[in-house]
Structures are given as structure tokens and as C-alpha cells.
Design goal:
Number of strands: 17
Low-confidence stretches: 1-9
Mean pLDDT: 95
Largest sheet: 9 strands, mixed
Distance between the termini: 75 Å
Helix content: 40-55%
Structural class: alpha/beta
Number of helices: 23
Radius of gyration: 25 Å
Bound molecules: nicotinamide-adenine-dinucleotide
Strand content: 5-15%
């Protein structure tokens, strides 16, 4: 990191332009030593046969003139051997990769410069999880497969015009193709496989060959904005979970939310609980993780003793404090204590990494953190048994709490899946789970069906004052909308108004000057138009990039997450996500992306998104209206066809606003009539 800061000071702007414009340099830089001070990706699985390994090296050499091959070939073979991938570490640039002011990037197209800014943010050392391996988040969410792809892409972006489109195949820049001003400047596909080759090990194999990559959601689409995205989503989830409590007045004051995990995404729960006005109680087994969150200020107090913690919870309830309390220990011990002491808890969830239960994602009760770490590698069979017993104990305690009125939800971390596999009592008679997932009960029916989703923007001047002004503009738009909005969406608007008013003081910016705000189609369009006007007036110093997480109304087909509240059988289809990206691309998106696997894993989901540059022009007004309207209403139409009530309401409202929109609406069959059809005589 120190090195990084020093280099930041010495690279002048003309030098930066020169190195970007040269792409892969004629004369290669010296090889770089492996830097142990940086957080590196784990060694990847080695599944390639000898023939395939030769192919992987041959593939990597395609980026270089033949005169370099004798030197590079053994180096790449060693990278493949040591890390399971060929990252081409030697080519990693010496300048800091970061979201500079848009005009600091050499460019002939402003749109292309905006894309350079966005992808640089995803690789910023302060933002990216494994920056040297070009991984932004989620362990394997890649921006590029190797540094040659990065250098070439930056060169193409710096030299392209608004009459060209850059085509990216899983990080590989296939090249610039002639197009036109209204076309996207970049089209990104990540991990698009022939369906039969979409198993997790296929990713290992084809990624090692250098022919595909896992782009997660916002990593490979250049739309990652650091932790604030997840904080906002979690705040919205906690607030809406609170509203599901019987007799809720909407306030979480004095109400307790118990959960586990203070890690990558789970750590957002502590911050979100406080923003939502609740008492957050979070168990974390790893002392290092607890310490980081405490020092960062996301956790207010840390407790090692359960008796002291229980007393503190009771006190916080009495005084209706908004506070986050960490329990340094196992979540199972915490649940059992709360059940035994009969402490009234209103909300509960779990965010241990149960998508990875046997290799460090879940620490079973009865073992210390160190004992677990040792046992999982030395005695994996015994470790599995401990996990199994622990999950059963956890579910038993949670069931006692829900029997007393607690609302519990699965947080998309495979908690119910693994608990069920472990033999815990999590099933109804018909085989469905006794607890809902956060999308089924909360995100889907309360947000996505009405078009509310994680809209975001980035100020390309990289000036915090611009972000401040956009916050203010967005708040003014929401205030106006509140005056006219129907009852069905007033609550969502109110939550988001509160969020945007507090956004600056919550200090959530890491990397680019970005903001997230859940908004519906109307909100997104009105906010974007107001930004475009402010750019035109000169009130904003630079253009603004619009985008969203793929985890949205229309962007993602994922049967156990984003589309888990689709019940007509179509949750296993991916037409919506594919249609969405195609539709965005001809309605004015500056770039579009379509990925395999974002969020829940390779082969399990298709997810897509867009980026759009607002530059203050009337063309930008036209594009934003056309594209944002489609980008939200495509998903609402699909959710409405699946008979989701909120979506039927929302799409009818959209048709009233825009007479050119005509959507096929579902007719409802009589349930009794359907039931009678297959009754046995
Ligand atoms: N936040 C969201 O919106 C969201 C959405 C979808 C899925 N998820 C899922 O949530 C999970 C967590 O994600 P993450 O990025 O925070 O992972 P992470 O691994 O960084 O954090 C999980 C934390 O849980 C702790 N832990 C494990 N077992 C424990 C136990 N028994 N008691 C107490 N602490 C324990 C670990 O030490 C770790 O710090 C993942 O499975 C992820 O896919 C989250």
C-alpha cells in the first residue's frame, strides 16, 4: 500500500496518457515479484490435462509478438502451475488504477472515458478484493482474466470514437467494430456458455484455459461501488422485515435484529440495523473480523460474555437505542442463550457463508475458531459431522424464537438448504421451507414487483461536491414524488428519502463518488433528467454515469434469489435478463453486460446490466427516458404475467403514463376450479 501511494505521486498526467495509449508495450517490463502485502486470490483448482495446459499457455501467448514467446512461455506455465491461472503479473501497471476525473483519461469519446473511469474503480486497490488478480469482489468476480486484456482494453477505449463499439468476450477485447453514435460503446458478455458446459468445474477449466471468466454482478460490468450498495440493500430489507411483524407501526425503535456474520457482505447488517433505527446483535466467530468492523465504526460495542450481552440488549430495548452489539463467539451459542433466557427478539436471520459449509464458511458450535480451522483440513469427515449437529442445534433454537413471534428469513446464504441437508427441521409437509428467503417475502413483493431496485450513479468529475449536489437533487425529486404517489409505494419512497438525506453523513463512499438509491421507473427517470439538467446548467462540474446492480427488477433471472417470488414455473427461464440487455442496448445504453452466475454461482443465474453517461445534452434526455423506462418495466411486465399483484398494479400504472406501452395482462383462473380438475374419484 505504501508503495502504491508513492507511485501515485510520481506518475504525471502526460506519462499516464502515454502508457495507456501504448497498450501492451513493445518492450515488456521486467517481471514483478509476488507482493505478499496484497490480498491475493486463493490458488485455483488444477483441473487441466497436460494437453490443456499447453493450450492455456499457447492461448496466453496470443497477446504477444513471437519474439517474446521464449521468455514468456515458461513464466506463464509457472503462473498456471503456482496459481491455477495465468494472470500475466509482469504487465500489471505501475500507475495507481483509480477513478480519476473523467478528463484525466486520454480519450476521443467521452462515453469511452466514462467506461475507463468505471472499470478503473473496480480495480482500485482500495476497492478490489484481489487487485493483482483483477478480482473486484466475491472471491472470483473478475473484471479481466489477465493484465494483457486490461492494457488492450484501455488502449481501445482511449482511441475509439463514437462511431465504434468495443466488443468484450469475458474480458477479452475482441476489437473495435464500426457502429454509430446511438449504439453502446461497449458490449460485455461474461461466462456465456453452452448450457451443458455451465457446471462449477467448467468455470475452473475454461477460465484456466483463458477463454471465459466469472464476472459476478457488478465486477465484470464495471458497476461496483464498494460496500454502500450492500448497506442500502440490507437497510431496505431490515426495514421491510420489521413491517411484516404483526401490529407494526413501521418503526424499529426498541426492536432487536439478531443475526450472524460481520464479513464482506454480512458486515453491512450492523450498519444497516443502526440506520434502520433497530438494535443489531451480530455473532461473529473470527476475532480479526470483529476487530476490523469495530475499528471501522460499523459495530458499536463488542461482548465476549453472553450474560453481559443479554443485559445490554434489555437495556438497549428499554431506551430504544439504535445500536449495534457484536457477540464475539458462535451464533448457535447466542441463539440458545436467547431461547433459554426467553429474551424477546423481533427479527432474525443468518449470514454465515453456508454456500461454502465445509471449508471455512460455517464454524460449528462446540469447537473454537482455531479447532475448526484445524479440523476442517485434517479431519474433514469429523468436521462435517460437527457442522451437521451445529445446524440442527441452531434451527432448534431459532424455532423456539419464531414460535414466540420472531420473524426469521433466509439471507440467500444457503442456510435453509444446508440446514435441511443436515437433517434440521426446516420443512413443511409439502417439502417447502418453513421460513421465506429475503427475496420471496421482502425484496420481491415489496420492491421488485413495484419496480424499486438498486439504481446508482457516479459523478465523473470525481468531486465530492458534485455527489453532494446529486444527493440534494435526488432528495428534491423524491419529495415531489411523495406528494403525488399512490399509497402502494409511499413507504418505499419515504425509506429512500430518509436514506438519501442521511447518505453523506453515513460516509459510505469508497472509491468513486458514487451513490445508490432504490428507485422505481418514474423515480429513476425523474432523477436522471434532473441530473442531466444540472450538467447542462453547469451546476454539476462533470457528466454523471447511471447504472444499477444486476440484483434488480429486470436484470436477473435467478430462481432461488431475484426471481424466487415468481411462481408460474418461469423462474427457471432466463428470457427476462437476456431481453433486458438487448432492449437496453438499442435504447441508448452506453454499455451493456450479460453474465452467467452473478451472486449465486456459475450456471445458477443469468444476470445483466447497463451503464449510461449523462452529458447534459438533449440526446441524453431522450436516451435516459427510453432506456430506463424499458429497463424497469420489462421486469414488471414479466412479474405481472407471473400473476404478482404488486406488479400488475405497477404495470397498469405504467400503461396509464405511457400510452405506447401495451402489456399482456394475466387472467386469473379460479383456484377451486383448478383443484377440482385432478381430484381422484
Ligand atoms: N447481504 C446480502 O444481501 C446477501 C445476499 C445474498 C447472499 N448473501 C450471502 O451471505 C453470506 C455471507 O456473505 P459474506 O460476504 O459476508 O461472507 P463472509 O464469509 O465474508 O462472512 C461470513 C462471516 O460469518 C462468520 N461465521 C461463520 N460461521 C459462524 C458461526 N457459526 N458463528 C458466528 N460467525 C460465523 C465468518 O467468520 C465470517 O466472517 C454468503 O453466503 C453470501 O452469499 C448475502
Amino acid at each position: 500500500m505504501l508503495n502504491f501511494a508513492r507511485k501515485k505521486a510520481v506518475m504525471s498526467l502526460p506519462d499516464f496518457h502515454r502508457v495507456i495509449l501504448q497498450g501492451i508495450p513493445e518492450e515488456l517490463p521486467a517481471s514483478k515479484p509476488f507482493d505478499p502485502g496484497v490480498n491475493h486470490a486463493p490458488r485455483r483448482k488444477d483441473l487441466l490435462s497436460l494437453t490443456e495446459k499447453k493450450l492455456a499457455v499457447k492461448n496466453a501467448l496470443r497477446y504477444f509478438p513471437v519474439r517474446h514467446h521464449a521468455m514468456l512461455a515458461p513464466e506463464f506455465a509457472k503462473e498456471l502451475e503456482d496459481y491455477g491461472r495465468i494472470y500475466m503479473y509482469r504487465l500489471r501497471p505501475d500507475y495507481p488504477i483509480t477513478a480519476r476525473d473523467i478528463d484525466a483519461f486520454p480519450h476521443q469519446s467521452k462515453q469511452a472515458a466514462a467506461i475507463m473511469l468505471m472499470l478503473s474503480n473496480n480495480l482500485d486497490y482500495a476497492v478490489a478484493q484481489h487487485p493483482h488478480e483483477l478480482i473486484t469482489y466475491g472471491g472470483n468476480g473478475a473484471v479481466f482474466q489477465n493484465w494483457a486484456q486490461y492494457l488492450l482494453t484501455m488502449q481501445y477505449l482511449a482511441t475509439m470514437t463514437d462511431e465504434q463499439t468495443l466488443v468484450l468476450y469475458s474480458g477479452h477485447p475482441m476489437g473495435l467494430f464500426p457502429s454509430h453514435r446511438e449504439a453502446p460503446r461497449v458490449v460485455v458478455t461474461n461466462g456465456m456458455m453452452i448450457p451443458n458446459y455451465s457446471k462449477p468445474d467448467d468455470w475452473e477449466r475454461f477460465n484456466a484455459l483463458g477463454v471465459t471468466q466469472y464476472g459476478q454482478m457488478t465486477a465484470g460490468s464495471f458497476m461496483y461501488i464498494g460496500p454502500q450498495g450492500i448497506v442500502h440493500g440490507t437497510t431496505i430489507t431490515v426495514l421491510n422485515a420489521g413491517r411484516r411483524l404483526p401490529g407494526s407501526d413501521g418503526s424499529l425503535a426498541g426492536k432487536v435484529f439478531v443475526t450472524s456474520g460481520l464479513g464482506g457482505m454480512s458486515g453491512a447488517q450492523a450498519k444497516a440495523a443502526v440506520i434502520a433505527g433497530a438494535i443489531g446483535v451480530l455473532a461473529e466467530i473470527n476475532p480479526k473480523v470483529t476487530k476490523i468492523r469495530h475499528e471501522q465504526g460499523w459495530v458499536d460495542e463488542v461482548y465476549h460474555d453472553l450474560n453481559t450481552l443479554v443485559n445490554r440488549i434489555k437495556e438497549a430495548k428499554r431506551h430504544k437505542e439504535a445500536v449495534s452489539l457484536a457477540y464475539q463467539g458462535n451464533i448457535v451459542d447466542l441463539w440458545e442463550k436467547l431461547a433459554k433466557e426467553n429474551v424477546h427478539i423481533e427479527l432474525g436471520s443468518d449470514q454465515t457463508s453456508l454456500h461454502n459449509p465445509w471449508a471455512g464458511g460455517y464454524y460449528p458450535a462446540g469447537l473454537s475458531f482455531e479447532e475448526s480451522n484445524e479440523m476442517m483440513s485434517k479431519d474433514p469427515v469429523d468436521f462435517k459431522e460437527h457442522v451437521r449437529v451445529s445446524l440442527i442445534r441452531q434451527v432448534n433454537a431459532i424455532r423456539q424464537m419464531t414460535a414466540r413471534g420472531m420473524y426469521f428469513w433466509d439471507y440467500g446464504n444457503a442456510f435453509l438448504l444446508e440446514a435441511g441437508r443436515a437433517g434440521a427441521n426446516v420443512f413443511r409437509e409439502d417439502g417447502t421451507y418453513i421460513y421465506p428467503s429475503y427475496v420471496q417475502d421482502i425484496m420481491g413483493p415489496m420492491c421488485f414487483d413495484y419496480g424499486f431496485g438498486p439504481f446508482r450513479w457516479v459523478c465523473t468529475s470525481s468531486d465530492p461536491k458534485d455527489l453532494q449536489l446529486t444527493d440534494q437533487i435526488a432528495a428534491e425529486v423524491l419529495e415531489k414524488m411523495m406528494q403525488e404517489a399512490p399509497e402502494e409505494i409511499r413507504q418505499q419512497l419515504a425509506d429512500n428519502l430518509l436514506w438519501i438525506r442521511q447518505a453523506e453523513e453515513n460516509k459510505l463512499v469508497v472509491g468513486s463518488q458514487a451513490r445508490i438509491l432504490y428507485a422505481d421507473s418514474e423515480g429513476r427517470i425523474r432523477i436522471a433528467k434532473a441530473f442531466n439538467q444540472a450538467i447542462r446548467d453547469g451546476r454539476l462540474k462533470g457528466p454523471v454515469v447511471l447504472g444499477r446492480d444486476h440484483h434488480d427488477v429486470s436484470g436477473t433471472d435467478s430462481p432461488y434469489r431475484e426471481t424466487s417470488n415468481i411462481y408460474d414455473g418461469s423462474q427457471f427461464t432466463a428470457d427476462m435478463a437476456v431481453q433486458n440487455v438487448i432492449g437496453d442496448s438499442f435504447r441508448g445504453a452506453t454499455w451493456v453486460s450479460i453474465h452467467n452466475g452473478g451472486g449465486v454461482g456459475w450456471g445458477e443465474v443469468i444476470n445483466g446490466g447497463f451503464g449510461m453517461l449523462l452529458d447534459g445534452t438533449p440526446e441524453a434526455d431522450r436516451r435516459l427516458e427510453s432506456m430506463l423506462f424499458w429497463d424497469v418495466n420489462n421486469g414488471i411486465a414479466r412479474r405481472s404475467w407471473a400473476r404478482n399483484e404488486g406488479a400488475i398494479f405497477a404495470i397498469q400504472r405504467a400503461m396509464e403514463v405511457e400510452p405506447r406501452l401495451r402489456v399482456t395482462l394475466p387472467n386469473m383462473a379460479d383456484e377451486k376450479m383448478i383443484e377440482s380438475l385432478f381430484k381422484k374419484e
